[in-house]
TrEMBL record:
Its main location: membrane. NCBIfam families: bcct. PANTHER family: HIGH-AFFINITY CHOLINE TRANSPORT PROTEIN, HIGH-AFFINITY CHOLINE TRANSPORT PROTEIN-RELATED. InterPro entries: BCCT_transptr. It is found in: Cell membrane. Keywords: Cell membrane, Membrane, Transmembrane, Transmembrane helix, Transport. It is a multi-pass membrane protein. GO terms for cellular component: plasma membrane. This is Glycine betaine transporter BetL. The lineage of its organism: Bacteria, Bacillati, Bacillota, Clostridia, Peptostreptococcales. One of its GO terms (molecular function) is transmembrane transporter activity. The chain crosses the membrane at residues 12-31, 51-70, 90-111, 139-160, 193-215, 227-244, 256-276, 315-333, 345-375, 395-418, 439-458, 464-484. Belongs to the BCCT transporter (TC 2.A.15) family. It comes from the Bacteria.
Length: 521
């Protein structure tokens, strides 16, 4: 199937996606105010008219993931029947976790619960009900939904790539619908170009947030002034490091960084538990989990009449996860060869979701415990909230330094994973893309992050992620249809094979019995 793409022909996916990305980067850097205005207009149109698309898409992905785990398709292997997993479960988990969340855990882990605590929906601010609401909303945004979305795209890519020998491209998922001619034609190339652009903008959004928080931490802890110049320097240094990491391959740079991320994340999480109010954390975990599970469906389809809250929180997150689906999906597919569909979905969905729930409980409680007056002040500057919270606890200074180091390693590991995947996307699905393409996409990601910071910081980051993810929601929904069609066909062929085998065996046995009876007579 790899011959679907003639590598001697012009690589239109690479050329067109590069032109599109460079055009956006140029617009953001050369005309930041106009770029922000256009982004804001498009954002308002989507929020007012199409918020429901994001809401329904994410709920469908969760439902489909649960269906696959419980279905007969769960035993199908993502690879050939005799393939074994390439990585240990610990390395596998650390790589998918670092790629799938990374910077967001540090950036939002404290600030989100605190903001919900002082501005809840349907509860008195700073009340016990507000605490439960804060935990519930954090669990909704960081629990099963994003990981289920990643798992569906990841298993689809792994299935077609390793079991059906298709190129490692998003368009390969649509072979059952489009056929080979459709996949290698304009429709397939359009799908791949959208995947590339969605990935670039999603990663640039994350890099922008990480840069803001690293710069904020340097100012808060070391009194280094947080300026745009400092933020650009941080991006430049990180870019060199993640390009070096991505060009060294999965078994070296990316794997090592992922293990470092997991170790530092465990250290800072355990440290926060030790210095924090442990009984309060347990209470918040219990109450938040109960609210999360009992209101899972109603919260999954919740629509704010004014669209303001839903746009700021739910739709922003859903769009960010959808923007990350192509790159995280391809990356976890690449590291998951040899696992069954059931093992894959449970591993990708359940384990990281539980870690995220514990993470937001611990860091959210650290902030909320300090009271509404402190929270009100600490949430004024988003990127400083974590450091302000740490400053109120013993050993908080040390944890602040570890948090900045973790931000840097998450920054690098997320970006180098994306750089590797973008290289695959624009190399006809080659599992070992050329270093030159990795370098090109590494630079584009960095420049787009700078453009977004120039155009308005966090507000522009949020708006662009929502706008850029919208076209890809349609691709995500159609991929479910294609997956079902492929799995049904495989089970059908397997049943035909089993029946045929039994029939042949029966005929052989009947013939043998006849011959024995003939000899005896």
């Amino acid at each position: 199937m790899n011959n679907i793409y003639n590598k001697n022909k012009t690589n239109y996916v690479f050329l067109l996606s590069l032109i599109l990305s460079i055009s956006v980067v140029f617009s953001g850097i050369a005309f930041p105010d106009k770029f922000k205005e256009i982004s804001n207009n498009m954002f308002n149109v989507i929020i007012q008219n199409f918020s429901w698309v994001y809401i329904i898409t994410m709920l469908i992905l969760v439902g489909f993931a649960i269906f696959l785990v419980c279905s007969k398709y769960g035993d199908i292997k993502l690879g050939k029947d005799n393939d074994k997993p390439e990585f240990s479960k610990l390395s596998w988990f650390s790589m998918l976790f670092g790629a799938g969340m990374g910077i967001g855990l540090i950036f939002f882990g404290t600030i989100e619960p605190m903001k919900h605590f002082i501005a809840p929906i349907g509860a008195t601010p700073a009340s016990n009900e507000a605490v439960t609401f804060a935990m519930q909303q954090s669990y909704i945004h960081w629990g099963l939904h994003p990981w289920a979305a990643y798992s569906i795209m990841g298993l689809a890519l792994a299935y077609f790539q390793f079991r059906k020998d298709s190129p490692g491209l998003i368009s390969s998922i649509f072979l059952p619908i489009l056929g080979e001619d459709g996949v290698r034609g304009p429709i397939g190339k359009t799908i791949d170009i959208l995947a590339v652009f969605t990935t670039v903008t999603g990663i640039a959004t994350s890099l922008g947030m990480g840069t803001m928080q690293i710069a904020g931490g340097l100012e808060y802890v070391f009194n280094i002034e947080n300026t745009l110049k400092l933020q650009i320097i941080i991006i430049a240094i990180a870019t060199v490091l993640y390009i070096l990491s991505s060009t060294s391959g999965l078994d070296k740079g990316i794997k090592i960084l992922s293990n470092v991320n997991l170790s530092l994340a465990v250290f800072i999480l355990v440290g926060a538990i030790i210095i924090g109010p442990k009984l309060e954390m347990i209470d918040n975990l219990r109450n938040g989990t109960q609210a999360y599970l009992t209101e899972f469906i109603s919260q999954s389809i919740y629509m704010d009449p004014s669209k303001e809250w839903i746009g700021q929180w739910r739709v922003f997150y859903w769009a960010l996860w959808i923007a990350w689906i192509p790159f995280v999906g391809v990356f976890i597919a690449r590291i998951s060869k040899g696992r069954t569909i059931r093992e894959f979905i449970v591993g990708v969905t359940l384990a990281p979701a539980l870690v995220c729930i514990v993470w937001f409980t611990v860091f959210g409680t650290l902030g909320i415990h300090l009271g509404p007056v402190f929270v009100q002040g600490a949430t004024k500057v988003t990127e400083l909230a974590l450091f302000e919270v740490f400053s109120q606890y013993q050993f908080g200074g040390m944890l602040s330094i570890v948090a900045m180091v973790l931000l840097c390693t998450f920054f690098i590991s997320s970006a180098d994973s994306a750089t590797y995947v973008l290289g695959m996307f624009t190399s006809n699905g080659d599992l070992n893309p050329k270093g030159s393409k990795k370098i090109a996409w590494g630079l584009i990601q960095a420049l787009l992050a700078i453009a977004l910071l120039l155009s308005g910081g966090l507000d522009t980051l949020q708006m662009v992620s929502i706008v850029s993810a919208f076209p890809f929601t349609i691709i995500v929904l159609l991929s479910i249809v294609s997956i079902i069609k492929a799995l049904r066909e495989e089970v059908k062929q397997e049943n035909i094979y089993v029946v045929s085998k039994k029939s042949s065996l029966y005929k052989d046995r009947k013939s043998a019995k006849y011959n024995i009876e003939k000899i005896n007579n």
